[in-house]
TrEMBL record:
<keyword id="KW-0489">Methyltransferase</keyword>
<keyword id="KW-0472">Membrane</keyword>
<dbReference type="GO" id="GO:0008168">
    <property type="term" value="F:methyltransferase activity"/>
</dbReference>
<protein>
    <submittedName>
        <fullName>SAM-dependent methyltransferase</fullName>
    </submittedName>
</protein>
<dbReference type="Pfam" id="PF01209">
    <property type="entry name" value="Ubie_methyltran"/>
</dbReference>
<feature type="transmembrane region" description="Helical">
    <location>
        <begin position="159"/>
        <end position="180"/>
    </location>
</feature>
<keyword id="KW-0808">Transferase</keyword>
<keyword id="KW-1133">Transmembrane helix</keyword>
<dbReference type="InterPro" id="IPR029063">
    <property type="entry name" value="SAM-dependent_MTases_sf"/>
</dbReference>
<dbReference type="GO" id="GO:0032259">
    <property type="term" value="P:methylation"/>
</dbReference>
<keyword id="KW-0812">Transmembrane</keyword>
Amino acid sequence: MRFSNRIRFQKRFFDRFSSSYHLINFLSFGLATLTRRRSLTTLKIEEGETICDLMCGDGSNIGMIRKKFNKSRIFGVDISEGMIRRARFRFGEDNVTFLTENALSSSISSSSCDAVSCTFGLKTLSFEERKILFSEVYRILKPSGAFVFTELSRPKFGLIYLLWNFYFGFLLPLLGRFFLLPFVGKKYLSHSIDSFENITKDESSFRSVFSQVDLFSWYGGIVTGACGRK
Ligand SMILES: C[S@@+](CC[C@H](N)C(=O)[O-])C[C@H]1O[C@@H](n2cnc3c(N)ncnc32)[C@H](O)[C@@H]1O
């Protein structure tokens, strides 16, 4: 399988970071977990449906879905073997199929999923790669299947922006160095959020693919995303 340089970098980076990735949940003071839960709610999942979590990391979304819907079939796709290994270790494989694959060209069958989720993955992709990802989600969704993409974003103004700057530009890198977390210690996270900005950059890409798209902004713009239907 051939990957672009950027995707190869992501794979190596997240492999290295996989065993400590869960610490980010603590350093986000619960915001990451809250955001995942809120994102999954937008999908209105029903018991027995087939769900795919793209760029699933160490499986937090999968854990949440499985806890509520134990008869659903779940796919977890991630490019990093380390992350998939952690996800398997945390949640086992009952009703879950883990695929160590590129989310931009997975082996999941066309029109096979009722819902697709992807949290905190968009900022790791370029604008052009994100367009490919949206088409890929369209391909794997059943007719009128639901999707949600949620990402950390840069708030535009005011006090929230100052707090965001303090947290991502100063506090998190400091804590990251202390806990030896490369993801935040070298400001990787704040730089990738900075270049992603927010979901509005992708609005026309979403609208050119999906029939229904709703953009959302949570916590004063610290998290933005898009949900909708095929
Ligand atoms: C910031 S983590 C988010 C993980 C998870 N979704 C969460 O909520 O914590 C981004 C993940 O995307 C994965 N990733 C990056 N590029 C990918 C690609 N092209 N295909 C599949 N996974 C990819 C990385 O390995 C990493 O696990």
